[in-house]
């Protein structure tokens, strides 16, 4: 009987030790569904001039959180990184509009522009690359 009590107490102590070592990390998190940029069209591609052109880009997207409308677009090219508001993007998928002014410091020739977005939840998308011919 004494051996049974000792074994029972040891099992109870071991169980308490195991349970107390578990961190209360808040439980599992849901799946992450960052926004995806799937294609683009530059509306005024034939008229790209430094300092005098506002570039308008239609970008196809998927955003399961439906918060793209509250997000920000980041535009990066040789002269720096700029931000743009996102228009026409209230659905889970569709085509959004972004626009940005081209710096007057950009030299004529090919210009690689990278665009990525953060939706209203702060989730970042993939990056798309746009090649512009600056005249």
Describe it for me?
Keywords: Signal. It comes from candidate division KSB3 bacterium. This protein has one domain (36-134): Sandwich (Immunoglobulin-like). By secondary structure, the protein is mainly β. The radius of gyration is 26 Å and the shape is elongated. The protein contains 1 helix and 7 strands, in the order αβββββββ. Strands 4-3-6-7 form a 4-stranded antiparallel beta sheet, with no helix packed on it. It has one helix at residues 2-20, and strands spanning 36-42, 54-62, 72-77, 80-85, 93-101, 109-118, 128-134. The model has no long low-confidence stretch (mean pLDDT 84).
Mean pLDDT: 84
Tell me the strand percentage band.
35-45%
CATH architecture: Sandwich
Largest sheet: 4 strands, antiparallel
- Give the CATH topology: Immunoglobulin-like
**Strand runs, count:** 7
Our count of helices gives: 1
**Which stretches of 5+ consecutive residues score pLDDT under 50?**
none
Return the CATH class: Mainly Beta
Kindly name the structural category.
Answer: mainly beta
CATH superfamily: Immunoglobulins
Indicate the overall shape: elongated
Helix percentage? 10-25%
Distance between the termini: 95 Å
What is the strand arrangement across the widest sheet? 4-3-6-7
